[in-house]
Design brief:
Layout (H helix, E strand, L loop, with lengths): L23 H13 L3 H4 E8 L2 E6 L2 E9 L6 E10 L14 H10 L22 H8 L8 E5 L9 E2 L5 H4 E2 L1 E4 L6 E3 L9 H8 L48 E7 L4 H10 L5 H8 L1 E4 L3 E2 L6 H10 L3 H4 L6 E3 L4 E3 L1 H4 L14 H9 L10 E4 L9 E2 L9 H10 L7 H4 L3 H22 L8 E6 L1 H9 L4 H23 L6 E6 L5 E2 L10 H5 L4 E2 L4 E4 L2 E7 L5 E8 L15 E5 L5 E6 L5 E5 L10 E6 L2 E7 L6
Parallel strand pairs: 9-11, 10-17, 10-18, 15-16, 15-17
Antiparallel strand pairs: 1-2, 1-5, 2-3, 3-4, 5-21, 6-19, 7-12, 8-11, 8-18, 13-14, 20-21, 22-23, 23-26, 24-25, 24-27, 27-28
Helix pairs in contact: 13-15, 15-16, 15-17, 16-17
């Protein structure tokens, strides 16, 4: 499919995300509110949207519009800036920036803070970085579930906990990444860039998957791009991380185990490895015998749990697998959905255009029944679709009595610190992690099915403690120590069955974690609704509730018809009419010349004065459920 590399590539499935021509007025007002509100303004880093063929990033320090085009070499996208005012807010996309706790402290000090305590290392935007910003922004708006505006908070101004994530910046978006096992080199990679969507295709290649005619990051199949099959998954946004391969080791792993240590900061992990040589021996063992990415791997935007886990598990960004946030708005049904709040049975939210690794392993190796195919397992993982064992889908396989016995046996792994500190959520998460380890060991010792060919195992304690104590706290270090004990129990079980040496291990997280000034209780999106605008605001996204208004002046010059429709189409693809909207015709001096109310069909007529030029006439439309519109008589927004 030959396509000019100079032609901008618009968002996929564009049906309402970003700002269309009917939303420029409300969109600009919302951006202005977010950047100038006395409270939200100083806490907001950027406001991001798509409109009129380009992506826009607005900040107090400047604005940039950029487009994406097909890359000249036919692989993926390239990005070009087409307009800039002041500074480019994401000019610094250095993936190596802020890569140690010392660098975080230095950036905090340069930001005007003390720069002494890493758990209070607040960093201003001008001292932060935004790796892969253009790609991570553009992908979001490919989904019909994407917002009209995405708010990127300052790294330290997001929520009411000492640690937080979700933003575009390097601190919140950088995840550790380690591969260990057959065919993997030993050492630390410093020059290889990585994103979390690279994990799935790398697993696929190492596991011997065949190349297929699937879609790459551009959404086009290999055939549509005019090449032979060149991807491993139905939708593959990432690349194979060839840099981790050992040319002297041609072994392939027989199975894969992902340890996802939720929310663990890459700088915190590196600090423990360097400064505490006796700590985390089981994680250290895997890292020492594998490849670690010095500068980590960059996750989805927003850098938050449900989208990021599914990006890892599918090899596709959130804008392509359609779980764009833990909570988001469905325009076609006018409902807010909360996969993270729901937790169980959330695989239905994953879009049909992607393939999970569970599904891919079954496609390649077949069903496990009869012990010939692949048995797959998801333990406490938000990415679940297609897994044979999936805790969050209530598909639990294995001997229940043994599961209860092991859970009780491992209860002592939970530190008394959590209850002593009155941190009951941390205590509860620790108990859940212990149950997860019991599940894993049962799955590897149950002769009713083969050992899992693919295991995706979330250990959640590091995230909850990072939130409640901070990402560089004594609490987080205790949580990592406790998590390491659990990793060790799994490794011991694999060794006991002779499976350790043939397993590919991956250590990673779903996002990073930044120190947050919890006293701010920052929630920028609320400024939009507090200002009286009609919007759905699942932090950090803004969905504006607008009308599509058309004004048709009749040829006689004496009358005009106004039609007011809901700007978002419903499930039928139609825009419902807005009944009862108050329509006003006024002159340049705001003098009211006529009034009317829209009918059940969303229309009304207005008389036009023949003694006033059309370009001096204005139509205003108000309805309690929508943002107001003000247009010229020719229908163009003011």
């Amino acid at each position: 499919m030959p396509t000019s590399i100079d032609t901008p590539v618009l968002p996929e499935r564009l049906i309402g995300q970003g700002l269309d021509e009917h939303q420029y007025e409300s969109g600009d007002r919302a951006i202005h509110i977010l950047l100038t509100d006395p409270v939200a303004g100083p806490q907001t880093d950027m406001v991001i949207t798509y409109r009129d063929g380009a992506y826009e990033i607005w900040a107090q320090r400047g604005m940039v519009r950029f487009q994406r085009v097909y890359a000249a070499d036919g692989r993926g996208y390239e990005y070009r800036v087409i307009e800039q005012i002041g500074e480019n807010p994401v000019a610094n996309q250095d993936r190596k920036a802020l890569a140690t706790i010392g660098e975080e402290l230095a950036a905090s000090k340069a930001s005007g803070f003390p720069g002494i305590d890493p758990n209070l290392a607040y960093v201003e935007p001008e001292h932060n970085a935004y790796p892969f910003a253009y790609e991570r922004i553009a992908q979001l708006f490919d989904s019909p579930n994407a917002p009209d505006l995405a708010v990127n908070p300052k790294a330290y101004a997001f929520g009411r906990q000492p640690g937080q994530h979700g933003a575009l910046d390097a601190i919140q978006a950088r995840s550790p990444l380690v591969f260990c096992g057959p065919g993997i080199a030993k050492g630390v990679l410093t020059d290889a860039p990585s994103t979390q969507v690279d994990i799935a295709p790398t697993i696929a290649q190492l596991s011997g998957f065949p190349l297929i005619d699937g879609r790459d990051v551009t959404g086009r199949t290999s055939a549509e791009r005019g090449v032979a099959p060149d991807v491993y998954l139905k939708r593959q946004d990432g690349r194979v991380l060839d840099e981790i391969l050992d040319p002297a080791d041609d072994r392939r792993p027989e199975r894969v185990y992902i340890f996802l240590l939720d929310g663990l900061s890459n700088t915190e992990l590196k600090f423990r490895l360097a400064e505490d040589p006796d700590a985390i021996p089981h994680l250290r063992r895997l890292i020492k015998n594998g490849t670690m990415f010095e500068y980590g791997s960059f996750t989805n935007f927003p850098s938050i749990t449900w989208p990021s886990h599914n990006a890892i598990g599918t090899g596709a960004w959130g804008g392509h697998h359609d779980i764009v946030n833990p909570t988001y708005y469905l325009r076609e049904t006018r409902e807010v959905v909360t996969p993270q709040g729901q937790q169980f049975d959330t695989a239905t939210f994953l879009g049909p255009g992607v393939e999970t690794l569970y599904e891919a392993f079954h496609r390649v190796f077949g069903d496990w029944r009869g012990h010939e195919g692949a048995f797959t397992a998801s333990i406490h993982e938000p990415c679940t679709r297609g897994a044979d064992h999936a805790t969050l889908e209530r598909r639990v396989i294995g001997d229940r009595d043994r599961l209860r016995e092991l859970t009780a046996r491992y209860a002592g792994d939970t530190q008394p610190k959590w209850l002593r500190d009155e941190q009951r959520p941390a205590h509860a998460e620790s108990i859940v992690d212990g149950r997860g380890v019991a599940q894993a060991i049962v799955l590897y010792s149950d002769d009713a099915h083969p050992p899992p060919k693919f295991m995706f195992h979330e250990l959640t304690l590091t995230d909850g403690v990072g939130h409640d104590y901070g990402p560089h706290s004594d609490g987080e270090r205790a949580a990592l120590d406790e998590t390491d004990v659990r990793v060790g129990r799994v490794l011991e079980a694999l060794e006991a069955r002779g499976l350790f040496d043939s397993t590919l291990f991956i250590i990673t997280t779903d996002h990073g974690m930044a120190p947050v000034d919890a006293s701010l209780k920052a929630n920028q999106v609320r400024a939009v609704t507090d200002a009286g605008m009609k919007a759905v605001v699942p932090d950090p996204l803004v969905y504006l509730i607008d009308m599509a208004v058309t004004v048709t002046a009749h040829q006689d010059g004496r009358t005009a018809m106004i039609e007011a429709l809901a700007n978002d189409a419903d499930a039928s693809g139609e825009r419902p009419p807005v009944e009862g909207a108050a329509v006003t015709l006024s002159g340049r001096n705001a003098h009211v010349l006529a009034r009317a109310t829209t009918s059940a069909g969303g229309t009304c007529g207005l008389p036009l004065p023949i003694d006033i030029e059309p370009d001096e006439l204005y139509v205003t439309v108000h309805h309690d459920d929508y943002n107001p519109r003000r247009l010229r008589l020719d229908g163009t927004p003011i």
